[in-house]
Amino acid sequence: MEIADILTPQSIVPKLSATSKKQVLQELAKRAATVTGLKDRFIFDALLQRERLGTTGVGHGIAIPHGKLEGIDKLFGLFARLEKPVDFDAIDEQPVDLLFLLLAPEIAGADHLKALARVSRLLRNRTICDKIRGSNDGDALYALITESNTSYAA
Fold first, then answer.
1. What are the residues whose beta carbons fall under 8 Å from the beta carbon of 92, sequence distance 6 or more?
2. Which residues, at least 6 apart from 133, have a Cβ–Cβ distance to it below 8 Å?
3. Of 18, 57, 62, 66, which is the active-site residue?
4. 39 in Cβ contact with 33 (< 8 Å)
5. 8-17 pLDDT tens trace
6. Model pTM greater than 0.85?
7. 3-149 falls under which CATH superfamily?
């Protein structure tokens, strides 16, 4: 599985405007709804339910909100770069500015975990994150995320 298998150029948000964790999740759910065909409230509720189990803010300004949903048959990804970092209850207590949303079918066991691991490895690379933070262009962000991915196989 490659990140390009779950992420499209249309699912890159180079400048997302939000002022809180809740608003970030709402905006991500709205955008994911257009990709998945599901209702944004349904996606938002799944993301919120997952956040209640523990934060998806993994540190270093990165969050990987994710959830399993009925009604989809494959993994979907959405990447967003926030205009201004927001408090996301991250494990290092630092605000978040890079988000990779991952939605999986309810029956996706290992594939969901492999995708989470792949995204996590990619975003742990500080050089890539610095390049991502330095770009406002959706196509450039897509290229950075998908092409850099080849050396981080799951």
1. 59, 60
2. 81, 97, 98
3. 66
4. yes
5. 999 999 999 9
6. yes
7. Mannitol-specific EII; Chain A (3.40.930.10)
